[in-house]
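Worked example 3. Consider a protein that binds EPU.
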Amino acid sequence: MDRLLIHGGTPLSGEARVSGAKNAALPLMCAALLTREPLQLANIPHLNDVSTMIRLLARIGVQASLDDRLGVELHARSIAEPLAPYELVKTMRASILVLGPLLARAGEARVSLPGGCAIGSRPVDQHLKGLARMGAEINVEQGYIAARARRLRGARIATDMVTVTGTENLMMAACLAQGTTVIENAAREPEVIDLANCLTAMGARIGGAGTDVITIEGVESLHGAAHAIMPDRIETGTFLVAAAASGGAVRLRGADASLLDAVLGKLREAGAEITVEPDAISLAMRRKPHSVNVRTAPHPAFPTDMQAQFMALNAVAEGTAVIVETIFENRFMHSLELQRLGADIEVSGNTAVVRGVARLQGATVMATDLRASASLVIAGLVAEGETVIERIYHLDRGYECIEEKLAQLGARIKRIH
Ligand code: EPU
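Given these inputs, the predicted complex is written out as structure tokens:
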């Protein structure tokens, strides 16, 4: 298993390019299931989750061809087997995103139940409840969701909590339903807007994406389209925090500051100077960072996917920070590993109190999930001496060439096979 070796203590400096967003790419790829014509996606990130999604779609009968310029063409001429097997769903929960499109296009789907994961129990009851409201017959048998519907019907659906993939699944299913669907309490994440834009280019009739009420007027069929995937706001945020924690100065090309208001606000509060250009963000940190309190909540509030990285920043900041995680019940696993590097963190329920220390010290740590891994990389970059991060397959799921990009920014980092 690969590991990362980091010699800490070098401030990041220079330029790097932000990739396409993982959490936009995965639902967008599933949208290809809604039409018999090809869907062309540009700016696709090279990630293990994207490869897993290509494998899953291929099993279902979708032809995928990648070009060498970050493009993929997905062609679901026909649905061979509307199945998402356990082996694939267990490695990537986002596989649940084939459920809505398969049901809408093929009238049936069998998708393994995702089960628990490292950051909490993460049920999919809201996805199922919404599809049932649209007339699907849903049974859970032998660990699989078995869903059927001759043709879905438009419905008014109010989800109990804001769910990103739940909103995306229902929005995709509603595109081919008979009549109008209204999703209330919809997720407002930029990735939902990106998906709505692509679906609209495919002929869907969607209003309100980006607000908490999305209205979808069903159509008979969708057609092919070409769409460029939005930049990854979490990758952008991760590199900015790494630069801030290391006292560096970086410029990230291909980044979109309008997607990152809450994160940029917190970085400024920590003392960073941020310059925004239409297609780039620069950050310079000329002092030791101040502690910043963080409370995660659905967009446009502070994203849970940036919580772990800010814990690493706070670990070396001046002062004490309180971090409250309101989205997932078990997303502080990184705190134990950060403590192994010398961080002073006390966790009680969904709250962590982080007292900044003068320095962290390198050690061997273990990645537990994607964003937890990112926080360990940031901590390793600022720690004295050598940090080894194990189980980095989590990082490879969601960060494209992270060690190459960080090395480009001057970090002393390498992958050990
Ligand atoms: N929830 C339910 N029932 C449901 C759906 C969600 O109880 O049917 C709960 C979840 O357990 C959680 C909360 O609602 O407590 C919000 O979960 P949500 O459904 O929004 O999460 P998700 O759609 O499964 C996406 C991202 C995650 C990101 C969350 C929150 C993708 C592929 N994944 O997950 O990304 O943390 O939204 O913003 O879009 C990551 O990239 O590292 C990652 C975990």
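Take a moment to read the result before moving on. The radius of gyration is 21 Å. The pocket of EPU is lined by residues 23, 26, 93-94, 120, 122-127, 161, 163-166, 304-305, 327-328, 370-371, 398 (CB under 6 Å).
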